């Protein structure tokens, strides 16, 4: 099994190309099930989750082709163009064996139900960061007229005769996944759907823009109220996946931690204002460039900053672990409160192995900055937790060896290459 070896101590200098967003690419790929035409997605990141979803969509009957080899693009980044064609849905069941491997695959529920009138989808189950309930998906789709039963670990959903019917539904809690699913289902429902308390994440806007390019009638994405006027069918389209704001924030925090001067290319500061503001307050300078941002910290220490995770535009839960990594070296005491997932603190134990001083009280971590970290063997426990260990490893004295790297490969494309080109000593060790 692969491991990542980091030798700490080098500042970062150079440029890092930011990939297309995993959390946008996955729902966009799933949206291809809504049409019998071809949906072409550009800037698709090469990640384990994307490859797994390609297999899952294939199971439903999608024909998928990746444009030759990776295209070399502006700013020395690599991106893939992938074509998805689901002429016929050959299977409306998403089995446990596939859904359990990747939680986002549960979202096929929306398109399958809207297009085929029925779907049988395995419940996603919990994962390392907390439980993953589905009550909001069920309520939202039920509001559109679906009859939903849970049986043997599966959701059996059926549309009324004649298909789903538009309705007004207000989510009692913000959910990115349920907003994706209800919005996709509503595109093919009869009449108008109004989704209240919708998630405002940029990935929801990206999905809405793609659906609009496919012929859907959607307004309000990016606000708390999304209105969808149903159409009878959707066509193909060509859409570019938006930049990964979590990858952007992660590398910005890596520079803030290690010091140096790095341009993050093919990204957009406006996607992560709250996180960038926290990194600035921690002591890094951040300025926009033509097609990205420049992050630098030359001298000056890391200051303690408190953050609370929240739905967008709040501080993202997907950057919480990385920010904790950064705070381990601050000059004082900081507090990080996680409000989205009840168990997203698995990295605390591993950061402690590097010498971090962190205590937990309920959903809040208290981090007492230490003057030095020391390399050690550590274990990746989930996707973002694993990269927080890499960030800490960049300044830890000696060697940090991160095992269970498959978590990292779910969401960070060519991480070791991107950091190495900026002067870090990071290598993948295969055994
Ligand atoms: C609001 C938020 O920050 N969502 C994050 C969540 O999206 P993801 O779509 O995975 O999760 P949701 O946004 O649906 O979950 C938000 C909250 O709602 C709860 N919930 C969700 C669905 C449901 O039916 N019932 C219910 O109670 C969840 O337990 C959670 O506490 O994880 C992703 C991966 O880490 C992040 O990229 C998203 O930013
Ligand atoms: C935890 C994540 O993904 P997932 O919700 O697919 O597990 C993530 O993107 O940080």
Automatic annotation (TrEMBL):
Keywords: Cell cycle, Cell division, Cell shape, Cell wall biogenesis/degradation, Cytoplasm, Peptidoglycan synthesis, Pyruvate, Transferase
Active site positions: 127 (proton donor)
Residues the record lists as binding phosphoenolpyruvate: 22-23
Annotated Enolpyruvate transferase domain residues: 7-419
Residues carrying 2-(S-cysteinyl)pyruvic acid O-phosphothioketal: 127
Subcellular location: Cytoplasm
Function of the molecule: Cell wall formation. Adds enolpyruvyl to UDP-N-acetylglucosamine.
Identification of the protein by name: UDP-N-acetylglucosamine 1-carboxyvinyltransferase
Organism the protein comes from: Xaviernesmea oryzae
């Amino acid at each position: 099994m692969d491991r990542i070896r980091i030798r700490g101590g080098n500042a970062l200098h150079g440029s890092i190309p930011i990939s297309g967003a995993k959390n946008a690419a996955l729902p966009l790929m799933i949206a291809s099930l809504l049409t019998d035409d071809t949906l072409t997605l550009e800037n698709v990141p090469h990640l384990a989750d994307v490859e797994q979803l390609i297999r899952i969509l294939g199971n439903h009957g999608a024909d998928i082709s990746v444009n030759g080899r990776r295209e070399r693009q502006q700013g020395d980044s690599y991106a893939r163009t992938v074509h998805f064609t689901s002429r016929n849905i050959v299977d409306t069941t998403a089995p446990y064996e596939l859904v359990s491997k990747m939680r986002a695959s549960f979202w096929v529920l929306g398109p399958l139900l809207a297009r085929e009138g029925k779907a049988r989808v395995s419940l996603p189950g919990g994962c390392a960061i907390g439980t993953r309930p589905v009550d909001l998906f069920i309520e939202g789709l039920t509001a559109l007229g679906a009859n939903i039963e849970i049986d043997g670990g599966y959701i059996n959903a059926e549309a009324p005769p004649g298909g789903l019917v538009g309705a007004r539904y207000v989510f009692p809690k913000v959910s990115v996944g349920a907003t994706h699913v209800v919005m996709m289902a509503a595109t093919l429902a009869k009449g108008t759907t109004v989704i209240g308390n919708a998630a405002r994440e940029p990935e929801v806007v990206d999905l809405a823009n793609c659906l609009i390019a496919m012929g859907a009638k959607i307004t309000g994405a990016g606000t708390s109220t999304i209105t969808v006027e149903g159409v009878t069918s959707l066509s193909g389209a060509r859409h570019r996946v938006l930049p990964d704001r979590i990858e952007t924030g992660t590398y910005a925090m890596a520079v803030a931690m290690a010091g140096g001067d790095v341009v993050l290319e093919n990204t957009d500061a406006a996607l992560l204002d709250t996180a960038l503001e926290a990194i600035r307050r921690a002591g890094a300078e951040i300025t926009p460039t033509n097609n990205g941002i420049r992050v630098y910290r030359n001298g000056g220490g890391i200051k303690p900053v408190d953050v609370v995770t929240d739905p967008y535009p709040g501080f993202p839960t997907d950057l919480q672990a990385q920010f904790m990594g950064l705070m381990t070296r601050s000059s004082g005491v900081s507090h990080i409160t996680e409000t989205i997932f009840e168990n997203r603190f698995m990295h605390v134990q591993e950061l402690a192995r590097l010498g971090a001083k962190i205590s937990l009280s309920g959903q809040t971590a208290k981090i007492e900055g230490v003057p030095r970290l020391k390399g050690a063997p550590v274990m990746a426990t989930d996707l973002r937790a694993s990269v927080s260990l890499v960030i800490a490893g960049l300044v830890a004295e000696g060697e940090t060896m991160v095992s269970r790297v498959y978590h990292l490969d779910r969401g960070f494309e060519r991480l070791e290459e991107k950091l190495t080109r900026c002067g870090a000593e990071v290598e993948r060790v295969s055994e």
